[in-house]
Each structure stands twice: as C-alpha cells, then as structure tokens.
Amino acid sequence: MLIILLLVLPDVYIYWVYIRQWTQRRWLRLLWWVPSLALAVAAAIIISSNDMRPDHQAWVSIYMYFFLLLCAPKALFMLVDGIGHGINLLVTGGAKTREGYDCIFVRIFRIIGMALALFAITLLTYGYFIGRNRYVVHQQTFYFPDLPKQFDGYRIAQFSDLHIGTLRDGHEADARKIVDLINAQQCDAILFTGDLVNHQSAELDGFRRDLNKLHAPDGVYAVMGNHDYSMYLRYPTEDERHADVEELQRRIRDYGWTLLLNEHRIIRRGNDSLVIAGVENDGRPPFPALGDLPKTMKGLKRNCFTVLMSHDPTHWRRNIIPQTNIQLTLSGHTHAGQFKVFGWSPVAHVYREWSGGYAEGNQILNVSDGIGAVMFPFRFGAWPEVNVITLKRTKN
C-alpha cells in the first residue's frame, strides 16, 4: 500500500497542477503515467512471487533504485510546491498576478521544490554507485576501571550486517575488499555482530574463499542477527526453515569462525582473562528474541571482564544492563538508517541507541553502522564501516 501511495500521490498532484495545463494532447498526458505504472506492475510481481533467491536479489536492488529515483524527488517537490500553493491560497485566494503568472509564493516554493528534487536524485545516485562501497575504519577507544592489566590496549575489529546477498549484483569482489580491510587492522580479535545474509544460506555460495581468509591471533567470533534466521521467506514447512538456519551455522563454522549461540569463550594473558560472549538475536517484535543471558554467562564469575556480542542494540537496556555487569556490548542491526547527515538519521526516532558508543555507569554499548546494505544498496553519511575498538584501563 505504501508503495502505491508513493507512486500515485505525487503523480496525481503534478498531473493536476501542471501536466494538464501544459498540454491538451491525450497521448502526452497518458505518457506521464507510464513510468509509475511500470513500477507498480514490477512491485506486484516481486511481492507476489516471494522470489528472493540469491541470484534474483540483484533485481530487487535495481528496482529499489529506480523506484526511489522516481518517487523521492517527485514526493519532495509535491510537498514543497504544495506549501507554496497553500500559502498563495491563504494570502491571495489563489489569484495570479495581473500578467497571469503565479504569485511570488508559488514561484519561490516551486524553485525550492525543484532544487530539493535535484538534490534527492544526486544523493540517491551517489549513495547507490559510490557510497555503498566507500568503506571506512572507525577508530574508538573505551576506558574501563576493571579491565585486566594484561588486556590494556587490547584491540578488537568489529564488523556487522554484511548482508552478503546484496553483493551479488556485480559487487562480489567487495567481499575480498572487506576481508582485506579488516585483516589490515591487525587486531587481536575479530567480532562479527550478525546479519551475514539477507534471507538464506545459499547467498554465501561463492564467498567461502574470501570469508575463510579472515584471521586474528585470538580468533574470529560471530553471532546471528535477525536476517540469519530465514524469517523473511515463506517455507513449505518449519523444518525446512530450521534446516536452512542450520546450514548457515555450519558454513560460518566452516570458515573457521567461532559461532557463539548463547555461549562464551575465555582468552587468557598470563594470570588475566577476558571473556568473549555471544547471544542469539534478542530483539523487539517482530524480530526473534532468543537471547539467554544466564546460559551465556553460566560458569563465569560475576565480575569477570566481558565483551558481549548482541545483534540488536535494544537488548542492552531491556536485559543486559538490569541483569548483568557486562562491561562492553557490541551490536549492529540499525545500519544507522544507511543515511546520516550532521550526526542525525531518521532511525534515531526508532532506536534510542543507534550509532556509536553509549555509556550507562561502567557499562558501554557500541552500535556499528554496519558494512553492508539490505534491499537497497545505498549509503550516504552512514558509510560502511569497520570498527576498531581499543580497550584501555582507567588509571587509578
């Protein structure tokens, strides 16, 4: 329904206010509706077919680009131009000037609307062709009073939300770029905080050689995100869905990564130790809530220093802070909306913690902007990132 409204409302407005005044030729008036009609038909085919097989996801990405390229500029123009006409109606009763031109309010807002439409086209095109693979390294340092001395200066490479199926539109080589970028940071450990795929395990076909090359002295660790549970496809039976999830888990382990499903591992330096723990995805509805903190921390002392991977950042305030003393939690999931300007993103109205570091007492959460994109391979401002986190001991 939202797709239809975004297609129809701007077209109706522009047609009624402008097209029907510019020409009386019926074929030209009908031509105005053709692009939106084609996009509506394509949307109906995509939605009805439920066809998100790996080799077909590229078509969805291309569709989203042309859909937004057509709809977003027109919608912006409609909103701004409509304000101009509304002001004109209030001030002049809708009258034109003596020469027959629109009043100054209409002309000013029309120019602003056209400028914003052009900006939207430029932004979408840049984000789709360049921003999506403008990979950056985000250096962060977090201080803890109880960090074991032997781990002072310990470096973690966090990456999140790879969504590797989106790379199957001619960007397969980006998997090697991402792996090389992470390895180049020469961190002590590499932590992946979920959403390896978009929909199903078969998206990983052809990427084993690259993902298997990730390495760090203390290992590569991973948890699962909401997309890794095959929850966005219809399966004939639940057994088939579970089988695909198990196949994804098998592949992750085959890469040499340590998959933590409500589990932990202990890294030792002399007499000191650091815990790396990981919970299954624990989100608000409709996302899976499978995290089990008691099981994850079973057998550990309450004051042990722990780095926890939990894909969904809402888990931090809902359960991690009230139930544990876990010092550092690493999450992803939000992508920072894949769009950020001056430190703001629309996703800030959905998530309280959505990008970067947050502190509550001695507990810290870091939310990665992610390194991939889902559905629409676009990024602007929220560039795809690798987070290099240095742990430092607070001086007494």
Quick overview:
About 40% of the residues lie in helices and about 15% in strands. It has helices spanning about 1-20, 25-30, 35-50, 55-90, 105-130, 175-185, 210, 240-255, 295, 315-325, and strands at about 135-145, 155-160, 190, 220, 260, 265-270, 270-280, 305-310, 330, 355-360, 365, 385-395. The longest helix has about 35 residues, at about 55-90.
Characterization of this structure:
- About 40% of the residues lie in helices and about 15% in strands.
- It has about 400 residues and is an alpha/beta fold.
- Helix 1 (about 1-20) packs across helix 4 (about 55-90), helix 3 packs across helix 4 (about 55-90) and helix 4 (about 55-90) runs antiparallel to helix 5.
- It is elongated, with a radius of gyration of 25 Å.
- About 35% of the residues are buried.
Indicate the topology:
Elements: H1 2-22, H2 26-31, H3 34-49, H4 57-92, H5 104-129, E1 136-144, E2 154-159, H6 174-184, E3 189-192, H7 208-211, E4 220-222, H8 238-254, E5 258-259, E6 263-269, E7 272-278, H9 293-296, E8 306-309, H10 314-323, E9 328-331, E10 356-360, E11 363-367, E12 385-393
Parallel strand pairs: 1-12, 2-3, 3-4, 4-5, 7-8, 8-9, 9-11
Antiparallel strand pairs: 2-12, 6-7, 10-11
Helix pairs in contact: 1-3, 1-4, 3-4, 4-5
Task: Report the sheet with the most strands, covering strand number, pairing sense and barrel closure.
Answer: 6 strands, mixed
Shape descriptor: elongated
Beta-strand segment tally: 12
Nearest-integer average pLDDT:
92
How many separate structural domains?
2
Query: What is the string of helix and strand elements?
Result: HHHHHEEHEHEHEEEHEHEEEE
Helix content: 25-40%
Helical/strand content category: alpha/beta
Rg, Å, rounded: 25 Å
CATH arch. level architecture of the largest domain: 4-Layer Sandwich
